[in-house]
Write a structure and sequence with these properties.
By secondary structure, this protein is an all-alpha fold. Helices cover about 65% and strands about 0% of the residues. It has one domain: Hypothetical protein af1432 (Orthogonal Bundle), CATH 1.10.3210.10. It has 17 helices and no strands. Helix 2 packs antiparallel against helix 6 and helix 7 crosses helix 14.
Length: about 290
């Protein structure tokens, strides 16, 4: 059994624990400015040769149907726009992070597929409904990082992680992954993820969504709606069996998630189609990173 303090201290002392690219935090700060600057943002990204190389490869890929070769970060920012660049910087950084992690108990490709699926789901629902009055552009980032605690615990806390059921579905209809983790590890993956993201310096509004994505009703009011959107998107992807979260398949989506967001369940079929289409496009990142050949 661990306390939150003990587990963070243990993770901090693990030298092999990779950190998220600091450029991600700098990009977030640059794009949160009242008037983001193309040249300033381009300089931040260009300071990281690996990120620059992958960004240019993606920008020139068939994914974006480039008509002429993009050779500089500034060209990529101008062509793709701030929103798309923010997503790509985060996507590339998370792919590299997952690729750098030592062997763990989660399949890295399935983990990536689930994470990007939730990110895409949040983004598509936001685009279709404008359910978020603000913080909409951060939906992709929140979805992508929501299960980072699961990845970290499965890799660096193997003994505790192995005490969790291989297939939570076998526990029946009333199981709750958060309760199971707290009972068997003394802490849950949402707490671990939020603590690590906070240490990395990501904004509180992202950290809170990750921390409360299994219990949005107790999330601070400012982030509560986005956290409900995250919970809904996670449920949709688990129902579709997108990637692997080690949380079992969601047989049905709780009606309260739709109700709390004021959304019509009738959009589900269209959302599922958009997720399927977009995930196939996103797999180009795995090829570029070398995770999938």
């Amino acid at each position: 059994m661990y306390t939150l303090k003990e587990i963070i201290e243990q993770l901090i002392n693990i030298r092999r624990l990779p950190t998220l690219n600091p450029v991600v935090v700098m990009v977030e700060k640059a794009l949160n400015a009242e008037e983001p600057d193309v040249q300033g943002l381009s300089r931040v990204i260009s300071d990281d040769p690996s990120l620059t190389s992958m960004l240019l490869k993606v920008a020139n890929s068939a994914l974006y149907g480039a008509r002429r070769e993009i050779t500089t970060v500034q060209e990529a920012v101008v062509r793709l726009g701030f929103t798309e660049v923010r997503k790509l910087v985060m996507d590339i950084s998370v792919v590299n992070y997952v690729a750098d992690m030592p062997e763990g108990l989660l399949n890295p490709i399935k983990y990536w597929e689930h994470s990007i699926g939730v990110a895409i789901c949040m983004e598509q629902i936001q685009n279709m409904t404008r359910v978020m009055d603000k913080n909409g552009p951060q939906s992709h980032v929140v979805g992508l990082l929501h299960d980072i605690g699961r990845l970290i615990s499965s890799t660096h806390l193997k003994e505790a992680y192995e005490s969790l059921p291989d297939n939570p579905d076998e526990l029946g209809s009333d199981w709750n992954i958060i309760e199971i983790e707290r009972d068997r590890m003394g802490i849950d993956h949402a707490q671990i993820g939020a603590a690590v993201l906070d240490r990395w310096g990501l904004p509180t509004k992202i950290v809170n969504c990750v921390r409360y994505h299994h219990e949005p009703e107790v999330c601070p009011a400012e982030q509560r709606k986005q956290t409900y959107l995250l919970s809904l998107s996670d449920a949709i992807c688990r129902k579709m069996q997108v990637g692997g979260s080690s949380e079992g398949c969601q047989t049905e989506i709780p009606k309260k998630l739709w109700t709390k967001l004021g959304l019509d369940e009738g959009i589900l079929e269209e959302v599922e189609k958009k997720i399927t289409d977009q995930i196939q496009k996103s797999l180009v990142l795995l090829n570029i990173s070398g995770m999938q050949n």
